[in-house]
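Onboarding guide, step 5: your first structure request.
Type a short instruction followed by the sequence, for example:

Predict the 3D structure of this protein.
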Amino acid sequence: MEGADRRSILIPVVAGRAYDGAVRYAAAQARLHRCGVHIVTVLPPVNLDPPAMPDLASTHARARGAADEILILVAHQVRSHLTGLGLPVWTELLHGPVIADLAALTTGARLVVLERRQDAPATDVVTMSTTDGIVARARSPVVSVPSGWVPGSAGSPVVVGVEDPADRQVSEHVVRLGLQSARLTGTPVELVHGWWFSDAYDDLVFGAAGVARQSAGREMRLLSALGPLLREFDDVCVKAVVEHARPADLLVRSSATASCLVLGRHHSSYPVGSHPGPVCRAVLRRATCPVLVAPARGGCLREEVVTPAVVNEARDLGRTRTGTRVDGP
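The system replies with structure tokens like these:
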């Protein structure tokens, strides 16, 4: 690990799962940022005291073997996408509390890439999932990639969910992250805001004309509040989409044509972080594109000078490279 780039892409893995989508996304980001990829798995600590020591030792040995296998497999997959670029790829096996150890590693990571299982529960309630735990405590952006994800057509927009443009501390942070991502990949941005007051009376109170007036007013306030930030990114094509719809449903629908969906999360009020909100949890479980979640404060992708060659390479996210293995430190 000595000499490793602290601004690397972090891929947490566990034995027995596939990481094709996460590997594609992480490798594309590594090519774009010219940075290394750090693959890590964490085994919970095991107490080997008698009398259960023989059985536990055998179980731990099998778990260690499975962990080594998944690290080797994912590292090989990542290297196959980075052949000839000289970018470091390395693995690490840790022993300790899973969420706490992974959260500690996010402090020095450029981006954390998780793969969402196809059989992940569709519930919107708070769960004890690893994704929710990492999103709540991460100090860097976290992206959840659907299992088996492959990139869509070139030029697909980066969709940014804007909950409340009046809350500039949150909305500007999230929108800036989306604009930075779009600038690096040469893609447009859609600022998506869904508004919905109550299932009890929305359809009764708001007719077609009322919905149009409310949406137009919200769009005007959104663009006004974010105007100074948008002028910083005048090279990025930005479109505002404001609809009368449940925010989670609108964002999930938007994910069908997006290259990436960017969301924020609640302010971190406690040392262990704050759980993702209901919209964030719903989108993480139902979106069909990668979902990038900004940390509560700080941690935006660093601004970089991007040449046309790098932009063209980033757009071709799905290209698989094969050849000589690229060894990391």
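Each response can be followed by summary notes, for example: Strands lie at 8-12, 37-43, 89-95, 109-116, 142-146, 158-161, 189-195, 238-244, 260-263, 291-293.
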